[in-house]
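In response to reviewer comment 3 from the previous cycle, which asked for concrete evidence that the modeling workflow produces usable outputs, we include below a single protein chain processed end to end. The sequence was submitted unchanged, and the resulting structure tokens are shown without manual editing.
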Amino acid sequence: MVKTRISSKGQTTIPVKFRLRWKSSEVVWDETSDGGAIVRPVPDIMALFGSAHTPKRRDEAEKQKGREGWAQEIDREGRP
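The workflow returned the following structure tokens.
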């Protein structure tokens, strides 16, 4: 468990060990029934295509659509 502070602006830092493991620049906050929260990384959908070894650049709009679809799927399934 890692403890961080919340700044006066409502910001907190994600510890480096999580940032390195997650390799994501976005997180999702899920509220739990007891008032707590679960923080999860938003997966880089385009990373799944890494084995194709294509020289084509990743389209940011497609990446964003994938992230939004993932977040909507989480909302449909219900939060823990």
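Residues 16-77 form one domain. We consider this sufficient to address the reviewer's concern, and the full set will be provided in the supplementary archive.
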